[in-house]
Amino acid sequence: MSEEKKDQLHEKFYAQSVEQVVKELNTSENGLSSAEAKQRLAVYGPNELEEGKKKSMLQKFIEQFKDLMIAVLLVAAIISAVVSHEVVDSLIILAVVIINAIMGVVQEAKAEQAIEALKQMSTPNANIIRDGHPMTVKSDELVPGDLVLLEAGDIVPADLRLTEVSSLKIEEAALTGESVPVDKELVVLEDGEVGIGDRVNMAYSNSNVTYGRGKGIVVNTGMNTEVGKIAGMLANADETETPLKRNLNELGKFLTAAIVVIAVIMFFVGIFFNDTSWADMLLTSISLAVAAIPEGLPAIVTIILALGTQVMAKRNAMIRKLPAVETLGATDIIASDKTGTLTLNQMTVEKLYVDNKQYSVHDDFANDHMAIKVMNFANDTKFSQEGNLIGDPTETALIQFGLDQGFDLKAALVAAPRVADLPFDSDRKLMSTVHQLADGKFLVAVKGAPDVLLTRANQILMAGEVRPLQQADKDNILANNKDMAQQALRVLAMAYKIVDSMPELVSKTLENELVFAGLVGMIDPERAEAAQAVKVAKEAGIRPIMITGDHRDTAEAIAARLGIIKEKDDAAVLTGAELNQMSDEEFAQKVTQYSVYARVSPEHKVRIVKAWQKAGKVVAMTGDGVNDAPALKQADIGVGMGITGTEVSKGASDMVLADDNFATIVVAVEEGRKVFSNIQKAIQYLLAANLGEVLTLFLATLWGWDTLLPIHLLWINLVTDTFPAIALGMEPAELGLMKNKPRGKNSNFFSGGVLSSIIYQGILEAASVLFVYWAAIKWPDHTAANMPNLSAEALTQLQHADALTMAFATLGLMQLFHAFNVKSVHQSLFKIGAFKNRVFNWAILLSFALMMVIIIVPGLNDIFRVSHLDLYQWAIVIGTSFAIIPIVEIVKFFQRLAGKK
Questions:
Q1: pTM greater than 0.90 (yes/no)
Q2: Can you give the CATH number for the domain in which 558 is found?
């Protein structure tokens, strides 16, 4: 492979034979060597699509100033410096804007890192042959010449020239727009230009294998693939906004419009009624607008969501789309597969029926019983080099049972080696093996469906002796078979016979005149944590739904054991056949009656999801197969399986379970509820603070008071808004969070009493600040009696400086105290714990220190035009600021009282 080829390989591999392709790419049927693959990776680069150019830190920093309100603020700062000659004010405004921009860049970078980590988690794998051995590698490590193995459910990882196909069908809608899967063939297409849709000997990157299996040689990777060419055209396309971000932007626009109107009114009131200079009022009005608009809210919400995804990842829930975190918190229905999610996907023997008696696996019985020998002999399970069992789950369960009972299979096979077999098939429902015994005779071991095997048996092994099989024996056997089946056990029967010579391998002769040995009952046991997870989900008002391809009785029994339905609640179970008899309208009316769906196909899942959605529910749906993809996309939250799931199902999912465990879904729902609650807290905190600032300045302007300067508002906005708001996003889950009902499909960030809390708490903040300012003027610390040498004008200036400082300190400290109130909308602060969140504690201390430093430190207080306060004045400031906690506690108490009524 020469380096010149790195930009573009042969474009018409479909017109070449497999031998020509192998020769051109210098590969073989054993694939590449690891050393050669490493060299080619250096030449061709990773097999991944190039992303659009990432913005540099400088570009991100400059973009922070593109916001209209920031631009207006900068203009106002220039006006202030030129017209009012307030150079210090302008420099401080400029400094605050730059600090805000830096924080915005840091927040954006953190969110990008979290999203990038999530992208890495979802990188698909590819099954290939290298060094002559099958192995699994990350798809971005593929190079031209690699030999890729394909099977149903895979996403084709690169452009391939197929070398082997077995009923292979690939859906190429992403490239051709044709949704019908294409049957692949190994023909050579020599008719000149052949369209992508007609290249039946090729498989293209990002297309989906829907059926069969095959092999193919990688001919193009990365941006040289057909999908890479499309990606190249789309590289500079604008990113689409998520619904969550769009809602936040709409909220921001509404608030901006409302606050601009207030700022304009305040501007004209100040000029025409209070005789304030237009430059000062312009600066004050614009500063109010910028300080009051929560422009950092989208970034803060993104950070909270990203932090939530990291917590979920540690608990085996991989979130692929950030808004899914918030949607999870609203989940009403969790529709889950049974096998592997609610159960272990690991068949286990639970019961054994021999000698007309049913035994539990924990009971004592002879490990040399013929039933145990037959279930181990009539078995295709293999042992790996590490000693693990490899084979069909049912058969490995039988071998494991034998091992647990002390049955030495290897020694038994040495004594009676297997010399022939008649494999299982679905028509006769039996499997037989033939073993040569030491005396020259042959043992025929047969296992299969009880009803079929009983028709082939004419004797029974009872207490170590063989006797004729009576009707009473058959009745007992069938009764025990039914009993075990009703316990959700899969039942197999064992029988045998000993013949003098090697029998003919024909079912009619080999599997007749058998000696019945016993029944074995197996189950895919429910996960130990699944029943508890179902209980937690139900307490949270979430309805667990079980969907399975198993028989009705098995599904009903497992669902009852898990607590999804009550025992013998047959009316809560619906089969796929019964669902087929219902119209969509009839099913939508009856859907709430059913919690278990048995013998359903993946196609039924879409109908189930739509019916629940029509009932107004938010639905989370699990799936692992190719055909589950439509249901996963239809669901509000598609949940893919990380272990058993196909790449197609994972790609269609919003969340992937790393452990395929139902309990993990419930954990993710809890985290989703916590994230939504914390976003609400951040919004409540920011908007209440902003409303307090707006009302304070607006009313003060109407009354002709000069309460707060622009730099005061900007400093409070920077110091007391950002750090506590982000820290509130890290609050632990409130007690009883999973005992509340889902919040509903139509809820928003203002639901659950948040809007009313924002309004009354914002009014409370404004009233407190205005009261402190009024009190400081009414009962000043500096008086003519205390300072007789000062002129009246100088005395008034001192009194106003104190009042201004007290109002500024009260607004800042009150917001910090109020952050504790916001830890819960309705619960008492003393019940939820004030200091559990260490990040929050440090955020409050940092904000408090930054507030204090500009008031106390000489020089800084001159820049910010604040004065030193005495203990009496600090007592008023701190007392009034702290008062917001008991006042809100009293309101919460009456809210809880009203809620109980």
A1: no
A2: 3.40.50.1000
